[in-house]
């Protein structure tokens, strides 16, 4: 059945409601996470009981409206079926920040329709900021239109990144890229939440963002936000397969071009 234009705002409303409910859970437990509530999924990759409660809340809300839709969420097995709808959820992006009381974390919810990103929402509970985008209709922060930075060169911009803690064997290559950027930009930030880095790039705070070894739920909503804010998003190979490859470069058209050149000089054919 074809998707009616009116459907996408409805899906966004459901995502917003789900994020606000889960945000209450995150705010209630912030600063109260004990060691008994934390487990290690993999080396240096943690999950808390709060992540799981947030995810359960989001999934339950979505399923109450769209029970036949597929769901891919960070803390549970994917629920795939024949539906052309797939919700991509990160119930707490920035878990390590959250555990240590660093107030930089968010909820990310995106919707793919027939394999294409159609809607994305990122909610920053402590600041109560909601970033949202519908394909073809622009990006917004608290219902106000946002755009990527007007900066056209690396020398006049601030960029963001994350470190590849899941694949530490590439750290030498990553540090080379980091140094190359460091010598050109006004500054580099590492916030610890990829979805927020992408939201801030869409808002124009950062001129660009790059990272690798990410999961789809880290990137889906934020990538759409950047694109709908007028930016460019690719993986390190300059394709639109970032949700599959796990590497991402996002920024203004001009800055993306400069970032891609630097990254590929080290990572291409690695």
Automatic annotation (TrEMBL):
Keyword entries, A-Z: Hydrolase, Magnesium, Metal-binding
Residues annotated to bind Mg(2+) 1: 74, 92, 218
Catalysis: reaction(s): a myo-inositol phosphate + H2O = myo-inositol + phosphate
Listed PROSITE patterns: IMP_1, IMP_2
Cofactor dependence: Mg(2+)
Classification via InterPro entries: IMPase (IPR033942), Inositol_monoP_metal-BS (IPR020583), Inositol_monophosphatase-like (IPR000760), Inositol_monophosphatase_CS (IPR020550), Inositol_monophosphatase_SuhB (IPR022337)
EC number in record: 3.1.3.25
Residues annotated for Mg(2+) 2 binding in this entry: 90, 93
First-level EC class: hydrolase
One Gene Ontology MF term: metal ion binding
Alphabetical GO biological process terms: inositol metabolic process; phosphatidylinositol phosphate biosynthetic process; signal transduction
Family the UniProt entry places it in: Belongs to the inositol monophosphatase superfamily.
Protein name (Swiss-Prot/TrEMBL): Inositol-1-monophosphatase
Source species of the chain: Candidatus Brocadia sapporoensis
